Amino acid sequence: HCLSARAVCRREIGCDRGNGYSWKITLLRNYWKSKVKQEWLSGKYSNIPSQNSLPEKSMYPMDVDTWGEILEAELER
């Protein structure tokens, strides 16, 4: 789980570790974020007709830089 979260949330995990969080807390803080971020980055939600079509687990609190990564990926598609 740690490696899969780190593959998607390298910056976020590096920041948490730099702030002194343990590996366990870092994983808890970033696991669901990594799942949602990976789905957005993979294009799973690229052609959704409306916000009502988004599944419940499609959103997660993310910082501005993370949303920037997602929007850049959308622009490249």
TrEMBL record:
<protein>
    <submittedName>
        <fullName>FBX48 protein</fullName>
    </submittedName>
</protein>
